[in-house]
TrEMBL record:
A molecular-function term among this protein's GO annotations: ligand-gated monoatomic ion channel activity
Signal peptide coordinates: 1-24
Signal listed as a keyword: yes
Domain Solute-binding protein family 3/N-terminal: 46-264
Keyword Signal on entry: yes
Key words of the record: Signal
Domain Ionotropic glutamate receptor C-terminal: 46-264
Domain of life: Bacteria
Name recorded for this polypeptide: Amino acid transport protein
A Pfam entry, by short name: SBP_bac_3
Subcellular location: Cell envelope
Length: 283
């Protein structure tokens, strides 16, 4: 009996240590997903930016392995104005928000359309582009009206506004979903679907580079905006981005970025003022 009491004390002490350790581990795990401060970003020397690697001309990897595109121009400038280098991370449409939530990146610039649903997950900065949905299909069987999609197969990319729009407004349309844009376009080229829907800015560009295809529906649904996003509650970085976008607007930065990255693709098929948002002000 004399030994029982000391053993109980030791046992209780051991349990307390386990509890403290567990709490410490939980705290570390929780803080590990918290967004980095600007000071931490500067100390690391890198601004981690989520972008597309296969969505030309907005975000893509060229033949030399370098990131190029309209989104990349903004990413490069934001990093420069912070005094660090950009570190680009390729993402799929479906995991753009998750990369912010889990602190894998500091900013998402992956052609991210602002929606009410996404606002619950991330915080959006001022917009830098306007967009609506478009539908591209073969010229010999061009789709010019949504009604023509009834009984047909429409290709979409998971996690995009096109997927949400058609599921909500046109459940009669059969959707064929892919994780990556490149796979979705290949499915259209292979004839696995009758048409493909995503941002009109992208399908217009793709149709210009792929003869035999036409954007029969150039604007579908309500016009939206595209904006940078940060982790929910990361006001410090959000304020920096907003201030930078306003400053860049005074320098006509986004029209210059359009001329460099988008005009070579669109040519006369689109006008800069129809797509570009300068200084965060939608006109």
């Amino acid at each position: 009996m004399k030994f029982i009491k000391p053993i109980l004390v030791l046992f209780t002490f051991a349990l307390a240590l386990l509890f403290i350790t567990a709490c410490g581990s939980s705290k570390t795990s929780s803080s590990g997903s918290k967004a980095r401060t600007i000071e931490e970003i500067k100390k690391s020397g890198e601004l981690r930016i989520a972008v597309f690697g296969d969505k030309k001309p907005f975000g893509y990897v060229d033949n030399d392995g370098s990131y190029q595109g309209y989104d990349i121009e903004l990413g490069n400038q934001l990093a420069k104005d912070l005094g660090v280098k950009p570190k680009y991370v390729s993402v799929d449409a479906a995991n753009r928000a998750e990369y912010l939530i889990s602190n894998k990146v500091d900013i998402t610039l992956a052609n991210f359309t602002v929606t009410d649903e996404r606002k619950k997950q991330v915080d959006f900065a001022l917009p830098y582009m306007k967009v609506s949905l478009g539908v591209v299909s073969p010229k010999d069987k061009v789709i010019t009206d949504v009604k023509q999609l009834e009984g047909k197969t429409l290709i979409v990319t998971k996690g995009t506004t096109a997927e949400t729009y058609f599921e909500k407004n046109h459940p009669e349309v059969k959707l064929q979903k892919y994780d990556q844009y490149s796979d979705a376009y290949q499915a259209l080229l292979d004839g696995r679907g009758d048409a493909f829907s995503t941002d009109n800015t992208e399908v217009l560009a793709w149709a210009l580079e792929n003869k035999g295809y036409e954007v029969g529906i150039t604007s579908l649904g309500d016009p939206d905006t595209i904006a940078p996003a940060v982790q929910k509650g990361n006001k410090e970085l959000l304020d920096f981005i907003n201030d930078d976008i306003k400053k860049l607007g005074k320098e006509n930065f986004f029209h210059k970025a359009y001329e460099k990255t988008l005009h070579p693709t669109y040519g006369d098929a689109a006008k800069a003022d129809d797509l570009v948002v300068e200084g965060g002000e939608v006109k």
